[in-house]
């Protein structure tokens, strides 16, 4: 999780709407996954592991899309 967020902070801002949308998706998905991971320990905590992992996977996918848009990556 930390690596995904750290990698996103190294990316330049994207002027096109697709890049902005991907960045918003990255940060939103990462935050939502973290919210689910940080619930107090109770019987629901185990149930939230899969949804949290899915949110983090979405964040990783959004990061990959942003990297494709990075002109320095060419």
Describe the structure.
The chain has helices at residues 2-9, 17-37, 43-47, 49-69. The protein has one domain (2-6, 17-68). 74% of the residues lie in helices and 0% in strands. With 74 residues, it is an all-alpha fold. The model has no long low-confidence stretch (mean pLDDT 76). The longest helix is centred in the middle third of the chain and has 21 residues, at 17-37.
What secondary-structure arrangement, pairings included, does this model have?
Blueprint lengths: L1 H8 L7 H21 L5 H5 L1 H21 L5
Helix pairs in contact: 2-4
What's the total number of strands? 0
Strand content: under 5%
User: What is the succession of H and E elements?
Assistant: HHHH
Shape annotation: elongated
| Individual helix count | 4
Oligomeric assembly: single chain
The major pleated sheet works out as:
none
Structural class: mainly alpha
Gyration radius over CA: 14 Å
What number of structural domains do the residues give? 1
Which percent range fits the helix content?
A: over 70%
Q: What is the residue-mean pLDDT, rounded to a whole number?
A: 76
Distance between the termini: 26 Å
Low-confidence stretches: none
Please give a handful of descriptors for the protein shown.
74 residues; mainly alpha; 4 helices; 0% strand; 74% helix; elongated
